[in-house]
Amino acid sequence: MKMKKQKHVIVIMFAASLVISMLNGGDISAKKIQAYHCSKVIVANGTKYKISQIAKDVHDIDTGEKMTQKLKNKKIKWVSENKNLKVVGKTFTAKKIGRYKLIGITKKKRYRIDLDVVSKNPQKDLSMVEYATIRSGTDGTVVKIEEQEAVRNLCALINDAKFKFDYKRANKGPMVGWNYSVQLFLSDGTEQFKMVDSKPKYYYITSRANEINKYVEQLFNVSAKVTG
């Protein structure tokens, strides 16, 4: 009789410990999945990228560890939770501009790469621009360009330039050291376009860079003399 009671007590204790374990999120049959939250990568829409191509630019946000080798693991299955981010094997293509999460999964690990998707070509409607400001990267001096012919000429140069997304430049981060930044405004003060040394943000390059920079420098020097 005593043996039966002891067995009954043991069973109750085991069941209780199992319930407590489950309530605490414990899983006695499976190991905890190791999660990596990776750094952001800037890419262009409508362009196919290989995971191996971006792996060298990714690090673990918490530890700073480079993820190059880990992300090349052939066992990782890459998926997306957004229909606008198409994943095929070890490649992905973003259909639209926006922010997405690229998820890599194995039995024991999970990787998340944040993607900032920008346009292949910057949008630029400069038809209603009324004035511009130019800031010197040397001393921070700002001049305002209100003379309409000068504003139209500057806008025409920018409109004629074909800007191309540059992956390497985009993922190096903002430029350190620059000559001039230019901002174009509507009559109510709304910013319509901005560039630094002929580059909208720091993602793009253009073959018209020298021409644009030369004209900006000319406008700055003339305006500085007038307002000085």
Question: Your description of this structure?
Answer:
The protein has 228 residues and is an alpha+beta fold. The chain is 29% helix and 31% strand. It contains 6 helices and 13 strands. A 4-stranded mixed beta sheet has the order 1-7-6-3, with no helix packed on it. It has a 4-stranded antiparallel beta sheet with strand order 9-8-11-12. Helix 4 packs antiparallel against helix 6. The longest helix has 22 residues. It is elongated, with a radius of gyration of 28 Å.
Give the topology.
Layout: H1 2-23, E1 34-44, E2 48-50, H2 51-55, H3 68-71, E3 77-80, E4 85-88, E5 91-94, E6 98-105, E7 109-118, E8 131-136, E9 142-145, H4 148-160, E10 164-165, H5 167-170, E11 180-185, E12 191-196, E13 204-205, H6 209-227
Parallel strand pairs: 1-7
Antiparallel strand pairs: 2-5, 3-6, 4-5, 6-7, 8-9, 8-11, 10-13, 11-12
Helix pairs in contact: 4-6
- What structural class do helix, strand and pairing data support? alpha+beta
Residue runs with pLDDT of under 50 for 5 or more positions = 18-23, 25-30
**Radius of gyration (Å):** 28 Å
* Strand composition percent: 25-35%
Helix share bin = 25-40%
Query: Count of DSSP helices?
Result: 6
| Mean pLDDT, all residues | 86
